[in-house]
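Section 3.1: Structural characterization of target chains.
Under the original work plan, the team committed to producing a structural model for every single-chain target entering the pipeline before any wet-lab resources were allocated. The record below documents one such target. The sequence was received from the expression subgroup and is listed exactly as submitted; it comprises 344 residues.
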Amino acid sequence: MLRNRPTRRVGLRTVSASSSVIASSSGWAPTGSDARRKMAPVSKGTKKRSGRFHILVLPSECTANLPRMLAFLSIPPMRYRLTNRARPLQDGEPAFAIPVKMLRHRHELAATISFITRRKLFGLSYWGLQPGYFDRIPQDSGVLVRPAVPIAELVPGATFPGDIDLLIVPYEGNELVLDRTIAIEIKIVRASFAKQGKSPNDFGVTQATALQKLGFPYVAIAHLIVSDQSPREAWRPAGLVRIIGPDGLAEQLPDIETDWLPADLMERSFGRMQATAPEPIGLVAAYLGPNDENLFDVAHGTWFPLCRAAQSGAKSNSALLAAVAALVERRQDYFLDNPRYDPA
């Protein structure tokens, strides 16, 4: 049984495809025939030190249930220390250059960039996908986000899905928290008041399932919604509450008439995803705004996204996560740094 000891951070190690990977009290260790040759003879169910790793050798009768067993283990973090952290962008600095044609056609990439650069909306969505982790991450932490990552950059020879629409890698200080990496499949919902049942050609479940099989620790689907506005006669009352004290004391204000179309579209999209996507896959339904050329206009405010937390997969691929770390190290300029807390 693995004892609860502080995790000793180790360098990344590539494990052959024939090996399985389990967590030890000091990092990630290869198991299987390769590990047993190095460790033999080892008594069943025991731990033995080998270099920088603690290797847990399981009895053969346990290996068939290894994925189920791993789901209940408290897996120590797999981390990588960056040799050089790039300076994060400040508010107002240019982040991406987007062709005007993409904006006019509400292209998926343009909508994705709108999503990640609107930090309040993105932060609420990430909180919904990783609520336990988000609430406890320390100062000088956040996530590195990159849209449209060709899958072949991380898994040579892989062809489906062709791109990871959004790759999210958390960090704490100069360390990447690789075991919290999320791969997100993005779908755009271009709806209108007249066509509120509009949906994407597919809901993204097939692509998300493929990302799971490749070995990403967390996988999610995000439906990003754009629409026109409802006619004034279709608006409905909305209650208002004002906070009037530091202890949370509030007062009720008079109702106002509001366009509830964004909430209706999010509920419809979220319900469809829930009905089709299995439980380990996280879900986000987020409203970007009016269906005009300016996807980056925040004057209409922010609607809270509807989310389902992503669950950890039992088949995380350590070689894949090593490739993620290498990609971040090599091309930090391709990632947007979204800090958890406002810079001091």
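The two ends are 43 Å apart (CA to CA).
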